[in-house]
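Incident log, structure service

09:12 report received: a user says their structure output differs between two submissions of the same chain.
09:20 pulled the input from the user's history:
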Amino acid sequence: MIRVFGWQTSTAAEHEFRIGLPFPELNRFRFDANWGQPGDDIFDYDVVFAHRLAGESALWQKLCDTPRILTVYDMDDDLLCVDPENTIPYSIFHPLEAQTRRNVEMADIVTVSSPILAERYRKINPNVAVLPICIPNYMPHWPEPGPKPQHYTVGWAGSTHKRQDWPGIAEVLAELAYVMPSVRFHMFGADYTNGMLAGRMDFAPFTPDVMQYWRALNFHAGIAPLTDTKFNWGKCHTKLVEYGARGIPTVASAIGQYVDWIDHGVNGFLVHDKSEWVPYLLALADDETRRLMGRAAYHSASKWKICHHIDKWEAVFSGVVA
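09:34 re-ran on a clean worker, output below:
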């Protein structure tokens, strides 16, 4: 029996994808998994998995210096190159970059969420494995997508730290509203539309409750804008999988893992130029086009259930790096 501890460094939603979801899925005959904050028994574990451990940590160094403990450092976003325009995360993580890099160097194994991050982090630590972002096994079959709004509705969902990815997007949506007066909009987590969609938009504030967030995704077409930065090229496909699991096709920036997940014209559209947003969103206003692409997005998301990828986590916790 391998005892595994997931070191939870925050209560943000990222923890759910990296610890809360995969740990209970580990083979219970091979792994005894626990998670939270390290206690007095931390040195009794065989594996310690530290998610986003930023800054200097004497405890992490001691764990890494203990030969019988396998230390796994996990990074699902590149905290070593946070965009300065992303002011709050940048103010938190940028001053800690040197110590965070040291944490990565000391680990026995480093796990990341995308192949691009794997390429970057192998330059710091050669033992890197990709553990992809997944969804629960009961999605997308649970819950069945509820009735969509009466009007064609375009939606976005994210956090309160994404304004840097929205230059020009509010104007794009306003243009869509001008061309298609009946369109409506849903925003979840934050509103970066600068009042341009007043009277046409429903807004729900950010919630750390992942289940509540998933239930709320009931729009017809999703958008996923990203600016062209090093940080964003390392991002994984989380938003697209979440949309797809609800049968929602996505119009997304051709950045990072979005390029790999979207089969252009099949389960969504990839935007290479600002002028493409409105035509692609108009294409999804067609009921039959949207039905076919929504079904394709649904099937794409099904491939990312945790049951299809838990073997990768178990291999890492057994000390194997592919």
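09:41 both user submissions now match this output. Likely a transient worker issue. Closing.
09:42 reviewer note: The first strand starts at residue 2 and ends at 7. The mean pLDDT is 91.
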